[in-house]
Fold:
Amino acid sequence: MLFETVVTLLLPLSLALPQPQKAGNKVEVEFVGDLIETDHGVGGKVYILDQDTLVIDEFSFDNDGFGVYINVATKGRNKNAWARNRIDVPYPSGTQGEPIEKLYKGDGQLIIDLKQVGVKARNVKWLSVWCTVFEQSFGHVVF
Structure:
């Protein structure tokens, strides 16, 4: 379910926007929802920054899981179908898709670059913090 609420986030300098931005600039984003059905301390608020970029703000993860990746699904109508149709989105952008427990710096924010996998935010139905070892979501949100 897509919420129609638009909120404003103060984004850090590390956010890769199309044009250079200074820290503290206000950017309008669309709130999708909170990560739910979580495990391993996963939490956060998911936003659409633009059609190529999702943001998980206030992201938390205890880094005790392994083989954990950001996944999206554009097909399916329920959790099982989304899981079957999930697409790994390399994090951070430009990497070869290392598990997030190796690369996440613990700064509370993940920037998800959908251009890498040819997906637009308007087509995303589900985002998951997915464990490939146990084949389960450590937290997800439905769009």
In short: The chain is about 5% helix and 40% strand. Residues 79-84 form the longest helix (6 residues). The chain has a mean pLDDT of 86. Strands lie at 6-10, 26-34, 43-50, 53-60, 68-73, 87-89, 109-113, 126-131, 136-142.
